[in-house]
Amino acid sequence: MKRKIMLVVVILAIGMMSVSCFNKKKDKKKNTQTQQQQSANINTDIFNLGGQAQGNPNIKNLSPEEQQNLIDNQIDPSKVSEALTKAQNGDKEAIMSLAQLYYNLKNMDKVKQILQYGVDRNYPEAMYNLAVILKQEGNTAEANKLIARLPRGAVTSTGGAGVAGGQRVRQIRMRPGAEAYNRGVDLIKAKRYKEAKIEFEKAYNAGIKEADIRVALLNKELKNDSEAVKWFQKAANRGVKEANYEIGAILYDGGKQSESRPYLLKAYNSGNKALAMPIAMSYHQQNNMSEALKWYKIAAKNGDKNAAATVERIEKGGVIDEKKSNEKRVKTFLGNNNSSQSLTESTLNDVKSKNKAEESIKTETKPEENQPKAQTAKPSEKSSEINIDEIMKKKAAEYNK
């Protein structure tokens, strides 16, 4: 009886060991597939725009127009310039990353030029991808010549990658969401803003998170304030400091001064010193006069004449009619009698003013080389038409700091 029990135990133990080994092999196979899938992706996030919002005249291998186009697409020209130098010197990763980047931008001439750097050094990935592009363009003869130069072995398409001579080859493909993003850009140029917003939302949901700024600005232009706040909040959560100003501005102009204050404070601490006055007014509205006076003094020190007058009246014991005072200051709190009607309007007017200034110097210099820095909260003159495409370009670049 004991022998039978021992035999059963041994059999069960062997069975458990077999299952365990099978699971390990299965997990190992799964991990290998995951690693292969990851290796099939080409990274272009390395080119994302950081703090640079203007072209750099010291960059020699990108024209001002090329730099501006990269900035408009929230790509850092200095990083691309550095990668171009590496690609010309034969760096494989630089070649493939740049080729993928320009493929996303639909600049096929640049894609072919960059892949040619790799072809000249007999890199299988470059030859394979250039062959695919040439074949898609109908240039079968040149494509076949490149295929013939590949290492011995079959060339097939497998899960987004090819195999050349036993080597795995990454294939350039459009980034998920890029088509929708590009359609959104085209729709903005056609002034079809509602449709553009839908396309940018698709791009965002597909993984292009920087589309949140486009969606937010379009909602703001279309007067969908609650949606604009929601999308600016997404941008703020991923570290876009300027989005705090936009959220605070919308809430402030909607009569929610106290609710707007945390966002305005964040924007002020990020360098937007002209917001001291609305911060002071939000405290004043709550009858928190110690904090209100503190911020009125800060605003006055920053050059706001209305703030200076308010400080004088408070310190002399004068009574301020809160309702009338607030009505007047909303129109002039930026320290100038010609200020914008509201915080949110100041953003649009600022862009209009810059467009007008740039037009006046077109005959003298190139605008790409002389763009003024964004000054979101400063007052500006009104013009008859708002160019939403310019707002998109300038604000989106500004928000990726």
From TrEMBL:
InterPro entries: Sel1_AlgK (IPR050767), TPR-like_helical_dom_sf (IPR011990). Residues 333-401 are annotated as: Disordered. Coiled coil: none annotated. Residues 334-350 have a biased composition (Polar residues). Residues 351-371, 379-401 have a biased composition (Basic and acidic residues). PROSITE patterns: PROKAR_LIPOPROTEIN. It comes from the Bacteria. Transmembrane segments: none annotated. This is Sel1 repeat protein. It comes from Leptotrichia shahii.
